[in-house]
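WARN retry 2 of 3 for item q-0093 after timeout on previous attempt; input resubmitted unchanged.
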Amino acid sequence: MGDATLSTVRNAARVLKAFRTREESIGVSELARRLELGKSNVHRLLTTLVSEGLVEQDRRSGGYRLGIVMFELGEAVKVHLDLHAAAGPVLVRLREQTGESSQVGVLDGDEVVYVDRLESAYSLRLFTETGRRVPAHGTSSGKVLLAHLPEPAREAYLSRGPLPRLTPHTITAPDALRVELAAVRDRGWAEAINEREIGVASLAAPVRDRHDEVVAAVSIGAPVSRFGATPRRRVARALVEAGEAISRRLGWSPETSAHPDSRAGG
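OK item q-0093 returned
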């Protein structure tokens, strides 16, 4: 059963790859010939792919072409590739300014995934490897990303009820988190002190794309002992500026933004 499932997935992937020729559309018979698969098998695969929006049928010719979901997936890949290129130099500068570990995270479901990271220059540092997933509600990056979700998506997240308690300081009540996320939007940055792990503090600011949508968060993480109230305000200001710098490199312009961020003046 497992091998059959893998074979089906492999053949579905082969069907999708067949459209790299950039032809306007390809018929079932032609796809079957190119892939050396039976027409009925190819037709079943296409029917499933159409139902998922990965492929669509041209009503005029009867042939098939890639669907809008494939375009959306391609845009998502492009954003991540562009994000890595845009964030690199800014993370270097941010670490030089603060001395702390700097990273960029994106939202994947209910979790933050760190896609880029530079370690602190201090001997006492936090170790969060690139690619690590953490619950969004207990992190400053997650708060930024949740705060800027479209309202229906944000409310769907909050309507699930109490969230997992990571430490005694984690905000788990939906109403309390709703208030916190509103404050993040108003302030332009987020903080999480002892919320994911005791002794750990982080601050984060949004990263926007050319459409003015928040696609990532840039953050600083450090032991709480190095994050007093005054340093936090100073780091928040640097983070907002870093977020804007990455955003500009992604094509964002403050002149067209509907969400002017706070300059973290305290």
